[in-house]
Amino acid sequence: MKIIVTGNEGYIGSVLTDGLIKRGHTVAGFDNGWFSKCVAQIVRDPPMTIRKDLRDVVSKDLAGAQAVIHLAALSNEQFGCWNSHITNAINVAGTLRLSQAAADAGVEHLVFVSSTAVYGRRGAELVDETVSPQPATVYSRSKLDAERAILAASPRTMRTTILRPASVFGFSPRFRMDLAVNEFVTTAVTSGIVEMRSEGTAWRPFVHIDDLCLALIAVVEAPDARDRQRVFNVGLSQENYQIADVAVMVNSVLNVEVRKIPTRDQDVIGQRVSFDRFREQFPAWQPVWTLPEALSSVAYEVERAAIPLKRDPSMFRRLDSVKKLQNSGFLDADLKEIHRPSS
């Protein structure tokens, strides 16, 4: 199967494309290249990547593909706080443009990776796909708006699957330090401290990056379904934890200090999520990792990559990386490319 992965040079895309290639699929990338050099480890990219902004995608970019897995986005709450206009232009309008281009190109299956952040802050209530989302941030609202836009516009000829993954963690060749578990582990390995900037009472579901990529592969390889528009939470129901408990787990594995940083900030997202629908629909998905079992492995990979992580940690924080591209004259105020520096 020919599969195009948008955001293939990102945190998840770098792991996913390698997994798809190993499964025998023909994989092409679609990526603007912002994070192509943010590498902590040798990476295996697909043989061809269309170097283009999502806001400029056209149908011929997707020609010949049977499936498109859409990962490309401004990918966390920090971006939304920094610039809500651009977040919506890329995450919502760009996603809708991609969906329309995919339909025009005859793509059979569009898989959009959204987020459980769309549920907002729910306390200890267990939420599933039947619960009305209550996004509490610009980023989470952009994900929900994109979901609704492509479901409304998707023709019946194109199967559209919306996936809402739990908070992702784990090592990738294009690592991210701006994710909760990854940040805890990285600071523990590099400085011997886990810093908590909130009370840590918010609940959060977690899924290992390898297991998320296995889930995406299971979805794209699954036979066509009678219901051609479905929404699924992706993760494991037993993998819901409070943030403070995650810090304690990291301490138990790495024997480091857990330090609370005085702040008025509160977790604006946090929920306990049920993932039963996905497990029932995709029995081929066999996740490998739980959070407690994975921490030692993540720490080992972080230790192996300690030199690049320490040399320039901003490379592994997405907003910092984009600001550097702006300051270097590569991107303008709208995050449009001004020129591409020589490699």
Structural summary, described in words:
With 343 residues, this protein is of the alpha/beta class. The chain has a domain at 2-169 and 207-238 and 271-289: Rossmann fold. The protein has eleven helices and 14 strands. Helix 1 (11-22) links the parallel strand 1 and strand 2. Helix 1 (11-22) packs across helix 6, helix 5 (180-191) runs parallel beside helix 7 and helix 7 crosses helix 9. The chain is globular, with a radius of gyration of 19 Å.
- Spatial order of the strands in the main sheet? 3-2-1-4-5-7-11
**What's the CATH first level of the domain at 2-169 and 207-238 and 271-289?**
Alpha Beta
Tally of helical runs: 11
* Basic shape: globular
Q: Give the overall pLDDT as a whole number.
A: 91
Spell out the helices and strands N to C.
EHEEEHHEEHEEHEEHEEHEEHHHH
Fraction of residues in helix: 25-40%
Summarize the structure.
With 343 residues, the protein is an alpha/beta fold. The chain is built from eleven helices and 14 strands.
Which helices and strands, and how do they pair?
Elements: E1 2-6, H1 11-22, E2 26-31, E3 48-51, E4 67-70, H2 77-82, H3 84-104, E5 109-113, E6 121-127, H4 138-153, E7 159-165, E8 167-169, H5 180-191, E9 193-196, E10 203-208, H6 209-221, E11 229-234, E12 240-242, H7 243-254, E13 257-260, E14 270-273, H8 276-281, H9 291-304, H10 306-311, H11 318-327
Parallel strand pairs: 1-2, 1-4, 2-3, 4-5, 5-7, 6-14, 7-11, 8-10, 9-13
Antiparallel strand pairs: 10-12
Helix pairs in contact: 1-6, 3-4, 5-7, 5-9, 7-9
Protein name: NAD(P)-dependent oxidoreductase
Organism: Luedemannella flava
InterPro entries: Epimerase_deHydtase, Lipid_A_modif_metabolic_enz, NAD(P)-bd_dom_sf
